[in-house]
Amino acid sequence: MNKTPATHEELFLLLQNRHRILMREREDCNPGLFKEINNQAGSTFFVDHTLVKGTLQHSFKYYLALKEPMARALFMMFLISEVHPFLDRNGRISRIMMNAELFRGDQS
What is the Cα–Cα distance from 102 to 108, expressed in whole angstroms? Predict the structure, then answer.
């Protein structure tokens, strides 16, 4: 949990690795793989599957501009929950990424 991304490539790898661990028992959800079809919750549609990597990459520059651990944590949670890069458990992975930021900044 003390690892946070320094590049958008590291963001991709951290997300995919943590999701793979989280979902290792749910092969039907493609653990560790970004979605290949669009997903939604109720009437809310998330980022198109073809735009996931580009959206995360573009948004990463805003993350880098943030210096305070709490700001980074909140941004990371918002980014992942809004992009919804995986078919399932996006809320959980967004909280894992948020907690990593807080842990790294010695906050809770």
Answer: 6
Distance in angstroms (rounded) separating the CA atoms of residues 36 and 39: 9
Instruction: Give residue-wise pLDDT tens across range 91-108.
Output: 999 999 999 999 999 987
DSSP letter string over 1-27? Answer: -----SSHHHHHHHHHHHHHHHTTT-G
Confidence (pTM): 0.90
Tell me which CATH code domain 8-104 carries.
Answer: 1.10.3290.10
Using alpha carbons, select from 34, 63, 58 the residue that is nearest to residue 48.
34
Cα dihedral sign, 71-101-75-5: positive
**Closest of 94, 100, 99 to residue 19, by C-alpha:** 94
For residue 92, give both structure tokens.
């959980």
